[in-house]
Design brief:
Oligomer: single chain
Number of helices: 10
CATH topology of the largest domain: FAD/NAD(P)-binding domain
Shape: globular
Radius of gyration: 23 Å
Number of domains: 3
CATH superfamily of the largest domain: FAD/NAD(P)-binding domain
Largest sheet: 5 strands, parallel
CATH architecture of the largest domain: 3-Layer(bba) Sandwich
Strand content: 25-35%
Strand order of the largest sheet: 3-2-1-7-19
Distance between the termini: 43 Å
CATH class of the largest domain: Alpha Beta
Length: 417
């Protein structure tokens, strides 16, 4: 059996290692398009801060790990999948046959289509090579403009602030981390960030970037102008699926997969950020670019590629963020559901202490939660969301005092037992 995996990030690597354990005699090829060993993109901010070196980003530290696992590492860019011939084609024109194929190609960074986004001083922060370029320019006192204040953007912001730059953030949404936080929560994070000395423009987009007087000048949709020595684009990501054109693999926003991570084409599977998989609560296809989900999907895909019958429990939003020392979390359907679906919620706001708590219910089940400033027992929030336990009388207690979530979790866990 010959397994080929496109993408050597966490999902691809875990799938390769799982396949090796399940099929000791199989051929396994792991394809990456960078001249680097498999590494974690989430570790790049730690590289920027200086807490780790390049090698600290590597997913496996032993230099002979892949040789021992008999995983054939291939550097190359896949441009086509020929499902009929069961081959992948590289930009060089070379082809590689497979018996079963896993697409774990992850996401790619988005760049707004505005003038100047291709200037030398404008970077994404997606690859370790990006990290090296940014580290060379983000020196103490340098003026840095960051486009985007989503989850990834806030992690990058943390690293930049630690480097002592003069930082300004521009976010098109009405708040920071709009895809993770409610309006009140996102704006509470914004106030915290501004208090820490970072400039923040929300409801604003960059309309152009030009070179002027040896620097970069960004014009905003609000009419403001910001001068910068370095511009970092963290405007979001999209599934990396372009090479699948003509393959027959069904792609909507991402690759559509079933509960076994099978695509619409026989012997082709997908896992990780590139997939549009069933949501944990809704059962509907969702994009969910979160590493724990990616790794779970990789294990499911690998078991089924090896002839098993593994099933995913569904994609669940799990977000934990440290923003300049302020801890925030969101789990599940943090935005809630409408009353017509049995939805209800409770929200607790303490702006002076930068504390926030939001709980979302569907009937008497907690389906989502958001917190800021809570560091004790926040795992219980995830537990309540993930177990889907019936709260019974505890729902009324939580509506009256949402801080009692730990007691509710213990009580419902005991009842479930």
């Amino acid at each position: 059996m010959k397994h080929v995996i496109i993408g050597n990030g966490p999902a691809g690597l875990v799938a390769a290692e799982t396949l090796r354990r399940l099929q000791p005699d199989a051929e396994i090829a792991l394809i990456g398009d960078e001249a680097e060993p498999p590494y974690s993109r989430m570790a790049i901010p730690y590289f920027l801060i200086g807490k780790i070196t390049d090698s600290g980003t590597h997913l496996r530290k032993s230099h002979d790990h892949y040789a021992k696992e008999r995983i054939h590492m291939i550097e190359g860019k896949v441009v086509k999948v020929d499902a009929q011939a069961k081959q992948v084609e590289f930009s060089s024109g070379e082809r590689l046959p497979y018996d079963r194929l896993l697409v774990a190609s992850g996401s790619q960074p988005l760049r707004p289509k505005v003038t100047g986004m291709d200037l030398p001083g404008v970077h994404t922060c997606w690859t370790i090579e990006d990290g090296r370029a940014i580290a060379a320019k983000a020196t103490p006192g340098a003026r840095v403009l960051q486009i985007g204040a989503g989850f990834i953007g806030c992690i990058i912001m943390e690293a930049l602030a630690a480097r002592g730059v003069k930082l300004t953030i521009v976010e098109m949404g009405d708040r920071m981390v709009p895809r993770m936080m409610t309006a009140k929560a996102g704006n509470l994070i914004r106030k915290w960030v501004e208090h820490k000395g970072v400039g923040v423009h929300v409801n604003a987009g960059v309309t152009s970037i030009v070179e002027k007087d040896g620097a970069l000048l960004a014009k905003l949709s609000t009419g403001a102008e910001i001068a910068a020595d370095l511009v970092i684009c963290a405007a979001g990501v999209a599934p990396n699926t372009g090479f699948l054109a003509g393959s027959g693999v069904a792609v909507e926003r991402g690759i559509r997969v079933d509960a076994g991570m099978r695509t619409s084409v026989a012997d082709i599977y997908a896992a990780g950020d590139v997939t549009e998989a069933a949501g944990f609560h809704t059962g509907q296809p969702e994009l969910n670019a979160i590493q724990p989900n990616a790794v779970d999907q990789a294990r499911v895909a690998a078991h089924n590629m090896a002839g098993g019958a593994s099933v995913s429990g569904g994609s669940l939003a799990i977000n934990v963020l440290d923003t300049l020392g302020l801890i925030s979390t969101s789990f599940g359907q943090w935005q809630g559901v409408g009353k017509e679906l049995g939805g209800s919620s409770v929200e607790l706001v303490d702006e002076a202490r930068y504390h926030y708590l939001s709980l979302q219910f569907q009937d008497d089940v907690m389906i989502g939660a958001t917190s800021i400033g809570w560091t004790d027992h926040v795992g219980a929030l995830r537990g309540l969301v993930q177990t889907q336990a019936s709260l019974g009388e505890w729902k009324a207690h939580l509506l009256a005092d949402p801080t009692q979530f730990m007691a509710a979790y213990l009580a419902t866990a005991q009842n479930a037992a």
